[in-house]
């Protein structure tokens, strides 16, 4: 490979007006964090892009990591030459020869320094002619070229770019604030976590478990999902809620067809308390409209009534197949289909109420010590931080 640099462009961040600088600094920090595994790479922030000098690091390896960083629109490998026209010509030829698979090309040159004596269109013609003369396998196609060679002439140097690679897009993690996501072991909620993080939210997850009815392997499944999700942000905080007593109390006091509704109302109360403690401004779930009994509008109304926090449901309008496809892309699918029991599946009715009514739900809750059950669950939360692939109790770090 001839490329000494990777140039990272931000895309949507550039819409953020006065906040742009903050966004770019956050992205720069995220990139630095991710590239710690490539100690020789040097990162420099410019107004429009981040420039990574590879030194001896492999461009393909660094690219693979950058492709997962939220806030990056695209990445181009690049070489740098002086602003002398002969040097630029030679540089363009090196790029054309490197990208051997292409049959057609186009030059897209521009002057960043308007004092540079040769205009963009003249540069295009000159450099295009140079390529045609030296590379007999290449023809010009200005509409749909296999290879677009971009050239940017700056004050002291010119950059020549190879094939652009598309980034994951979105916004840098944390720039939208913190969200408490209800993470089950299923297919949907990890995808909801990914999509919410992609819009710049810092995700913390809360998981309800009911030992001994749910096993250690079910807990391990959620930890493994969290490890995958960590790859998209920094460290990942997971709150494990002891939910057995609440579920047993619900089973003993609530008619079968309302158990899911009441159970979910308790989950939301516990999640809200945890969110407020941790500075999260919203809850998020993997619900999708009409997917199961607890995901009808009537059900969502009855369940939502226990909290004033906004509840983000990024999958609300998505079909299961589309959700599963994203789960496969982000490598959570294989973990999610492991067959261990979730707390929701124990004590559950064969025929849950699909249109639960709020006043009925409130009446059934009078027979439960709701506040005590919620407080007991919140106090019993075990919090772990997942960082660099390991899990550790993080109580001290969180205080
Ligand atoms: P998923 O695939 O995410 O488990 P689902 O289709 O199985 O979703 P439900 O079981 O009704 O649907 O759960 C809906 C949402 O409620 C989940 O997406 C998740 O956000 C939350 N949830 C369900 N069970 C748990 C749990 N044990 N701990 C935390 N959140 C849960
Ligand atoms: Mg589920």
UniProtKB/TrEMBL annotation:
Entries under Gene3D superfamilies matching the protein: 3.30.2130.30, HUPs (3.40.50.620)
EC numbers on record: 2.8.1.4
Subcellular location: Cytoplasm
MF terms in GO: tRNA-uracil-4 sulfurtransferase activity
InterPro entries (alphabetical): Rossmann-like_a/b/a_fold, ThiI_AANH, ThiI_fer, ThiI_N, THUMP_dom, THUMP_ThiI, tRNA_STrfase, tRNA_sulfurtransferase_ThiI
Superkingdom: Bacteria
Residues in THUMP domain copies: 60-164
Residues noted as binding ATP in the record, renumbered to the chain: 182-183, 207-208, 264, 286, 295
Classification via Pfam families: ThiI, ThiI_fer, THUMP
Catalysis performed (reactions): [ThiI sulfur-carrier protein]-S-sulfanyl-L-cysteine + a uridine in tRNA + 2 reduced [2Fe-2S]-[ferredoxin] + ATP + H(+) = [ThiI sulfur-carrier protein]-L-cysteine + a 4-thiouridine in tRNA + 2 oxidized [2Fe-2S]-[ferredoxin] + AMP + diphosphate; [ThiS sulfur-carrier protein]-C-terminal Gly-Gly-AMP + S-sulfanyl-L-cysteinyl-[cysteine desulfurase] + AH2 = [ThiS sulfur-carrier protein]-C-terminal-Gly-aminoethanethioate + L-cysteinyl-[cysteine desulfurase] + A + AMP + 2 H(+)
NCBIfam families documented for this protein: tRNA uracil 4-sulfurtransferase ThiI
Family per similarity comment: Belongs to the ThiI family.
Job description of the protein: Catalyzes the ATP-dependent transfer of a sulfur to tRNA to produce 4-thiouridine in position 8 of tRNAs, which functions as a near-UV photosensor. Also catalyzes the transfer of sulfur to the sulfur carrier protein ThiS, forming ThiS-thiocarboxylate. This is a step in the synthesis of thiazole, in the thiamine biosynthesis pathway. The sulfur is donated as persulfide by IscS.
Protein name: Probable tRNA sulfurtransferase
Organism per entry: Sporolactobacillus shoreicorticis
Phylogenetic lineage: Bacteria, Bacillati, Bacillota, Bacilli, Bacillales
